[in-house]
Amino acid sequence: MVVFAGQGDARRSMSLLWRADRPEERDRRPGPRPALSVDAIVAAAVAVADEKGMAALSMRAVGERLGRTAMALYTHVPGKDELLDLMYDAVHAELPAHYPDTGNWRAGLTDWARDTLAFQLRHPWVLRVSQARPVLGPHEYAALDTLVGLLNRTGLDAAVLRRLVGTLSHFVRGCAGTVAEARQAAAATGEPDEEWWFARSALLGEVAPDFAERYPSLSAMEHASAPQPPDPSPADVPYLEREARRTFEAGLDVLLDGIEAAVRRAGAH
């Protein structure tokens, strides 16, 4: 299920996203227990989503995690819609803000892609937040600015860079989504990847004995594929996740090859 950001009150949501952090003022608030704060509520909400998924997120669940009622949260955050915006932006602060300029823009983009993939897999619920309407928060903008800065090192013009931002972002997000789903599949179905694939692949020979003739290009590719390199992944990593990670690395190389070709073409003019 896709979740759309920016559905709450625009002014209140944007004000909270761009609020000044004043911990000294929060510390002065009286009470037998530490006063609630926006940051504490957001951190608890992120923990709920990380552990149980987006479907489990509610003001009540966040309140229970903090030992408070849901109503106590509304003093600080207007509602779940605004909370989602705050959560999404807050976790983006984990992404590196800078990559050293070694003169090798390709290495920088490779590190960015791997870091972004790892980030999205730490918080797979962010993949449920639609990219159609961005949150427009400071940390989301910082992450975008970092990627643009890396692409600037290629020397390509702004019109091209704008499209590459989307291309790279969608590629990493798509790969992260596949890995996240691979991790969920066995638990959701009760059947490990290897057993699922083995059972159905064996049945294909029975139900479609003419498979190779019906799908010649696919069959030829499978038979001609070079042996896979040794897999460094732990033995308990699902088969589909291993394959998705290999696809990520291979696809990233092809994308960077394309950018490299564009850089050469631009230099030739």
Please tell me about this protein's structure.
The chain is mainly alpha-helical and 269 residues long. It folds into two domains: 10-92, Arc Repressor Mutant, subunit A; 96-221 and 233-268, Tetracycline Repressor, domain 2 (Orthogonal Bundle), CATH 1.10.357.10. It has helices spanning 10-17, 23-27, 38-52, 59-66, 70-73, 80-91, 105-122, 138-152, 158-189, 193-207, 211-214, 216-224, 239-268. Helix 3 (38-52) packs across helix 6 (80-91).
Helices and strands in order:
Blueprint: H1 10-17, H2 23-27, H3 38-52, H4 59-66, H5 70-73, H6 80-91, H7 105-122, H8 138-152, H9 158-189, H10 193-207, H11 211-214, H12 216-224, H13 239-268
Shape: flat
Strand content: under 5%
> Under the CATH scheme, which architecture of the largest domain would be assigned?
Orthogonal Bundle
Q: Which regions contain 5 or more consecutive residues with pLDDT less than 50? A: 21-29
Percent range of helical residues:
55-70%
The helix/strand class is mainly alpha
Question: Roughly what is the average pLDDT, rounded to an integer?
Answer: 90
* H and E string: HHHHHHHHHHHHH
Distance, first to last CA: 46 Å
- The radius of gyration over CA amounts to 23 Å
By DSSP (H or I, 4+ residues per run), the number of helices equals 13
CATH superfamily of the largest domain: Tetracycline Repressor, domain 2
Quickly name the level 1 CATH class of the largest domain. Answer: Mainly Alpha
**What is the total number of structural domains?**
2
Would you tell me which CATH topology of the largest domain applies? Tetracycline Repressor, domain 2
What does the main sheet amount to?
none
